[in-house]
Every structure is written in structure tokens, then in C-alpha cells.
Amino acid sequence: MEAVGTWRERLEQTALAPVVNTSRWYYLWVAFLLAVLAWGLYAYSVQLRDGLIVTGMRDRISWGLYITTFVFFIGISHAGTLISAILRVTQAGWRTPVTRMAEFITAVSLACGAMFVIIDLGRPDRLLNVIIHGRWQSPIVWDVVAITTYLTASLMYLFLPMIPDLALFRDRLPGKVPRWKLWIYRIFSVGWVGNNSQRRSMASAIALMMLLIIPIAVSVHTVVSWIFAMTLREPWNSTIFGAFFVAGAIFSGIAVLIILMAVLRKVYHLEEYITEKHFKYLGFLMTAMAMIMIYGNLSEFITVGYKLEGEGEFHFEQLFLGQFAGFYWYYFIGGLIVPCLLTLLPWTRNIRGVVLAAVLVTVAMWIERYFIVVAGLRVPLMPYEPASYTPTWVEWSVMAGGFALFALLITIFVKVFPILSVWEIAEEHESAEQSPAPAPLVPEAVAAPAGGG
Amino acid sequence: MSEGDHNTGSEEPQEAPGLNRRHFLKYLGFGAIGAAPLPILPSLLRKTLDQKTVRSNGAPALAPNGQIRQWTMIIDLRYCDGCQSQGTPPQCTTACIEGHFSPEPMEWIEVYEAELPGDGTQFIPTPCQQCQNPPCVNVCPVAATFSTPEGTVLIDQNRCIGCRICMAACPYDRRFFNWGSPPVPPEALLADYSAEHQVPAKKGTVMKCDFCPDMARAGTLPYCVQGCPNDAIYYGDLEEDIATNGEEVVSASRLLSQNQAYRLKEDLNTKPRVYYIPGHGEAVGRDAFTEGRQPTEWPWIERAKGAREWKR
Ligand code: SF4
Ligand code: SF4
Ligand code: SF4
After folding, report:
1. In sequence order, what are the residues at sequence separation of 6 or more whose Cβ sits closer than 8 angstroms to the Cβ of residue A315?
2. Do B162 and A52 touch (CB under 8 A)?
3. Owning domain of residue A334
4. Beta carbons of B200 and B100 less than 8 angstroms apart
5. Of B5, B8, B19, which to mutate for an interface test with A (greatest number of A Cβ within 10 Å)?
6. Which helix (H) or strand (E) holds B121?
7. Is the CB of B208 under 6 A from ligand 2?
8. Distance of alpha carbon A353 from its chain centroid, rounded?
9. What residue spans define the domains of chain B?
10. Which of 3.30.70.20, 1.20.1250.20, 3.40.50.720, 3.40.50.2300 would CATH assign to domain B21-303?
11. More confident residue, A436 or A196
12. Looking at the domain assignment, is residue A356 inside a domain?
């Protein structure tokens, strides 16, 4: 029993540490992010002044980096849903130390993604028209509804399991942190004392949210894909676009989660809780999604490519051999095949290998979004020379600013809120102590193919 | 601030056992009731902000039988030589540009040069096809693009938010964006803007051929029809079944049926209101192997100060 006591203390110390101690590196990092963000804001102010003329977009390729980044961010928001909701539903015990981080990613990337649609507008001053004159027939309105619903739900879902941890902070931190932080903990721990009735109602609230959030998440990326699939453009005119986007979203979400896990583990010394096992299991999940992506690519390209109807030939040519070939083959080989190998082969199946695979996947998925948008628009509709698109410094800067904001929000979250779900880890630990063989169904099932590969 | 701090501090402990199941359900219920008025929010906002929108210039025109006119355009490609014989840029395009002060590089009616079997070419003047199942209208989130009772598709540049999904949706490449502050000549500053006569152009919004119903109602023909030196473009009303190129008045249905008329990308089921009679300018003596046309010009731009142009 005493062992459990010190174990618990150590866990709490680890969870409290980021909030209490701040190193010089932290300020340097924040200063760097703020600088990039300020540069992005400056670029955006140029765009507001002169109009979208400062971008590389023109009539024939009328969407570019901004919409690419929007789709990418909404995609990685699926990290939270997958890890916490799906793994919670399947009662995969190993997920507990990483859920909180995944839920951070969800909330922050949704906000950043939504921001990029607004950045892309020609008339951001008329944004309210979408509410005043919104038409439910438009895919954009579907997106507004779906994304705001998802953002609300994922904030709830981030908040509910955090209540006991916030209460812990409220009780342990007085005197150690500024008053505004304590104030936050007091408000948001909503009077949690951890009695049975509170536990019961929180458990039922979490259960309700985790069932709600899965269909919401699926719907979000489906309607994002429908922005494209509801048009008559040859490369977008596809019935599997929704499913394909959802798979890609979960895929890139896991990758970003793995990267964040690796960073936070190093910076905040979470080695005891986030172990090689977590990287391996998430790596396997990522590989499973990669295989779905490979399957999706093949089935789409073989059914279309066999017939080469209409502009399909032009599109395949630019994708496989022409302008986008470098991107495409990096995506297919570097972003789908190599990561599978890295996570499956025994001598790269370690933290380093999995993180490397995750980085490859993240870059590849951004590139995939890029060529879906840009190559899709490039296919000529009428007898004219195919247009070209080169992003300008404004677009790159605004995009960099967006990524800096993403990192900054995560950084701040980590400083204020508990990065580990202390009570869940403790519960997990206790139940493991009591019954030495808790039969973790999912990990074994996931681990099984690894033995063969 | 510190006062509020204090209050919450003293209240919290009393509420401590707070969030039990009943409370939770109660909050949920309040939340649901709170969310109930959301659907009427838009109409409330509309009322309070008193959003005026220009729709069109007035009541739709009526045919003699009392029905609303259904504007149509029939382009006889046998007479279109891309203005090769004139040695000028296509005159329909120029006339439309001059009439609407369309910013460079917008060609609301663009003359595409398309290849024919056997390597000859034909010219296809292409305005907005005024689709009856318009993909652009379907996707617009704010109804800035809308269909009219006369069968045209218009854009309200006072409402457009510049999301450009309509440009992605139009299968005919017929929509143009004001990427920068569009050039405006002095005379256009006095123009009375309407969705039927999109002058002056507005930054950050989409434009396209508006089919000039205001001109037709006033008893003249659209600029492009007037501009064509070969009278290749007919404008008319399907309801009364008439069409004219400015020279002769014909039965629209006869002209279409007796000349194998077709519509662009018929298989997409967009149901355009613009018809074509196949040809390559043979009726005005063009040889199918004479390639090229003069590049389009925007002569009025010189009169607009501080003009910002962009490439297509
Ligand atoms: S760009 Fe304007 S007209 Fe086009 S869909 Fe968006 S709001 Fe509608
Ligand atoms: S041609 Fe294009 S812009 Fe014109 S109505 Fe059809 S879809 Fe809309
Ligand atoms: S109908 Fe009017 S707007 Fe359309 S191309 Fe002709 S002149 Fe231009």
C-alpha cells in the first residue's frame, strides 16, 4: 500500500511540474512562436489591405495553401476523437496517459482550421452573412454547423475528464502559481470533491459524450470532403471522398499525436507514463490507417484509371508523371509505404522509428491535401491552357503563423492545464495492482499482426 | 477583479457536492432550452441589421401570353470567325467589357478556340451558360448567387463573402474574382449598381456574365449581341419563342431544331440556357485551319486611375 502512495505522489508531481516550473527554454520557445505569429499577422494585414491579389491564387486555381491547411487542421483534430473516444469505447487501458494530449490537439486544431477558412475569404468583413443569410443547401454551411458542433463537443469532452485533475490542482497548488491560475482551477473544477455521486454523474456524462463525439467527428470530415465532392470537377467527383477524408484525418491525427507525445515526454520527463509501448501501439494504429489509405488510393485509381474517362487522363498524367509527380510519389511511398515499414519492422519498431514515421506521415498528409485541392482545380474545364499556381510569401507567412498559433496554444494549454489524466492513470494503475492480468483486449489484438510482420 | 475573485471563493465550498446526476441533467436541460432560440437567430439578426439586398432591377418581363419571359441565347458558330476577318479582338468580348467596365482579365464572354477533328479549329464564344440546374447557385452559402424567375443566374456583390466555392463548382470556367481592388473608371462611379448590371466592380467578390436582362427589358440587345459584326449571336425569349441577332427576328424553336443545336457539356445536366449551332465560321468564309485570334483588350482601363490588374 505504501508503494502505491509514493507512486501516486510521483505521478502528481509529474503532472504538476509543467504548471509550477518554467524554464528559460520555455520563454525562448514562446518568444519564437510569438515572432512567427506576428510575422503571419503582418502578412495577413497586407492581404486585408490589398485583397487576395497578394496570393498566388487566381480565377482558375482559386483555392490554394489556405484551404489545404484548413483541411489539414480539421484532419488532425481527429487525434482526440480517435484516441479518447474510440479507445475509451473499446476500453483500451493503455490509452489513459495520452488522452489529454490528444484532446488538446483536437480543440486547438479545430480552432486553427476554422480560422483558415476565414483567412481565405475575399470579404471576411461579411462573415456574419453566413448566419444571417445562410442556406442549408450549401456544403459550406454544413461545414460551419459541423465544425462548431464538433468544437463545442470536443471542448466538453476535454473538460469533463479534466474536472478531477483541476480539483487536484486547486488543492495542491495554492501559493505555488499565480492567482489567476488558481482562479481558473477553482471555477472549472466545479466543486469537485470526488464523492461517489460526483463520480457517477461524471462517468455518465463522459459516456454520453464519447458516444456522441464519434459520429460528430465522422460527419465533420465527411462534410469537409463534400466541399469538394459536391462539385462537378473530375478529380473530386467521387463517392468515396467522405470515407477517404475521414481515414486520412484519423491517419494524420495519430501522426501529430505521436509527435506531440514525443516532445512533451522529453520536455516534461513523462518517460514513466508514456513508454515505448504507447509509441508502438499508436504506430500500429497509424499503420492500420495507412493500409486503409493505400487501399483507398488503389481502389480509386484503378477504377478511374482503367477507363480513363473524360479528364481523368489529364489528372493522372499531372499526378503521376507531371507537375505533381514529386509530391504524389513522396506521399505514396514516403507517407504511406515507408511509415508502414518503420512501424512494423522489428529493428525500427521503437520510439525513434515511430516518431520518424509520424513526421513523414504528417508532411505527406499536408501534401496530399495540397494536391487534392490544387491539382483538382488545375484540370482544365474548357479549351484553355492549364493554369499554374505558386504560393506567394504572404500565403507561406500566414500559414506559418497558423502553425505557430497551433503550437502556441498547445504550449499555453500545457502550462495551465494538466497534461496527464492523473485520476485515470491512477485508476488504471490501481486496477492493475489488484488484478495482475487485466486482459487488455485491444492491445493484444493490435499487437498480434506485429508478431507476424 | 479581486472582488469577483473573493466571491467565487466563498461560494464554491457551499456548492461543493454540486455536480450530481440531477444537477447535471438540469444543466443539460437549461442548455437545451438556451439553444432553442438559435434557429430564429438569423431572422432576428436580419431584422436588426436591416440588410437590404439588391435583387434585380424590377419586376420580371412578361411575354404577350402573360408568362414571365425566359431569356435565352443562341450562338451560331457558322458565323463566328473569332473576328479573324476584322483583325480585331473578338468584338462580343470587347463590347461586353466596355459596357460593364469588367476589370482585366475578366472576359465574361470568352471566345475559346477549340480543336476540331482533323486538327482544324472553331471559335466558341462562351458567356455564363445560365444553367437551369446551376451548380454555382446550389453551393453558395449565402444566396449571393441566385436564380431568377426569368431563368438567369445573377450575383449580388453586396452579399458575396468571397468564399469562391461557386468558382470551384461552375463547370464552364465562367466565374471571375476581384482579387484586388478593381479598377473603376470615373463614369462607373456614378453607375447605379444592381445584380443585373454589376458596375462598379467590388473587391473580394465574384462576377460573371449577367445576361443583360435589364437591357432586354428596356428594348435593346445585350452589348455582346450588338457588338458581333457577323450577327452570330441571337438573344431571345423561349416563352414567346422569338430570338433576334439585331438583323432578323426568328422562331427560337425552329432555329434550334433545324440546325442540330446543342448545349455545352449536356451530360452534366446543368441545363444551360445558351445554345450553339455547330460550325467554324464557314458562313462568313473562315477556313477551319486558320488559327488564332487577336488577344482581348480592356481599353477603358486607361481611364481608371490607380488600376490594379492581375493575370487570369
Ligand atoms: S464567392 Fe460569393 S457568390 Fe460565390 S459562393 Fe461564395 S458567397 Fe456565393
Ligand atoms: S455557367 Fe457557371 S456560372 Fe453560369 S449558371 Fe452555369 S454554373 Fe453558374
Ligand atoms: S449577355 Fe451581357 S453580360 Fe453576358 S456576355 Fe453579353 S454583354 Fe456580357
Report:
1. A234, A235, A375, A376, A379
2. yes
3. 12-430
4. no
5. B19
6. strand B121-126
7. yes
8. 20
9. 21-303
10. 3.30.70.20
11. A196
12. yes
Which contiguous run of DSSP H or E holds residue B210? none
Pick from B128, B164, B176 the residue to mutate for probing ligand 1's pocket: most ligand atoms within 8 Å of its CB. B164
* CA dist B73 → B56, B58, B273 (Å): 20, 21, 7
Is the per-residue pLDDT at A429 higher than 90? no
Question: Total domain count for chain A?
Answer: 1
Q: Please tell me the distance from the alpha carbon of residue A348 to that of residue A365, in angstroms, as a whole number.
A: 22
* A204 at interface of B, judged by CB pairs closer than 8 A: yes
Give chain B positions within 8 Å (CB) of A51.
Answer: 178-181, 203-204
Give domain status of residue A380, yes or no: yes
What's the mean pLDDT in A357-369?
A: 97
Does residue A120 fall inside a structural domain? yes
pLDDT > 50? residue A392: yes
Q: Which atom of ligand 1 is nearest to the CA of B175?
A: 4
CA distance B225 to B244: 9
In a domain, residue A387? The reply is yes
Q: Is B168 in the pocket of ligand 1 (CB under 6 A)?
A: no
Over its length of 312 residues, how does chain B's per-residue pLDDT go in tens digits? 333 344 333 333 344 444 555 666 666 666 666 666 666 666 666 666 545 544 555 688 899 999 999 999 999 999 999 999 999 999 999 999 999 999 988 999 999 999 999 999 999 999 999 999 999 999 999 999 999 999 999 999 999 999 999 999 999 999 999 999 888 888 888 888 889 999 899 999 999 999 999 999 989 999 999 999 999 999 999 999 999 999 999 999 999 999 999 999 999 999 999 999 999 999 999 999 999 899 999 988 888 776 677 887
B271–chain A Cβ distance below 8 A for any pair = no
Q: Is ligand 2 within 6 A of the CB of residue B129? A: yes
Ligand 2 touching residue B245 (CB < 6 A): no
For chain B, say whether A138 makes contact (Cβ under 8 Å). Answer: yes
Choose from B163, B170, B175, B276 for mutation: most chain A CBs within 10 A. B163
Question: What pLDDT digit, counting tens, does each position of A269-326 carry?
Answer: 898 899 999 999 999 999 999 999 999 999 988 998 999 988 889 999 999 999 999 9
| Ligand 2 binding pocket includes B183 (Cβ within 6 Å) | no
Q: Measuring from atom 2 of ligand 1, which residue has the nearest CA? A: B160
Look up the CATH number of the domain holding residue A300: 1.20.1630.10
pLDDT at A2 over 80: no
Task: Return the DSSP state at B211.
Answer: -
Q: Quote the CA–CA distance of B213 and B219 in Å, as a whole number.
A: 10
pTM: 0.90
| Spatial separation of the C-alpha atoms in residues A309 and A343, rounded to whole Å | 38
Of chain A, the percentage scoring pLDDT greater than 90 comes to 67
Question: Please, which residues 4-33 of chain B have a Cβ atom closer than 8 Å to chain A?
Answer: 5, 8-9, 12-13, 15-21, 23-24
Q: Which ligand is nearest to the CA of B134?
A: 2
B160 touches ligand 1 (CB under 6 Å): yes
Q: Are B170 and B136 in contact (CB under 8 A)?
A: yes
SS (HEC) of A176-201: CCCHHHHHHHHHHCCCCCCCHHHHHH
Q: pLDDT over 70 for what percent of chain A?
A: 95
- Chain mean pLDDT for chain A: 89
Nearest chain B residue (CA) to A119: B163
Hey, what amino acid is at A143? D
Q: What's residue A450's pLDDT?
A: 40
Chain B residues with beta carbon closer than 8 angstroms to that of A131 = 41-42, 45
B83: left (phi over 0), alpha (psi -120 to 50) or beta: left
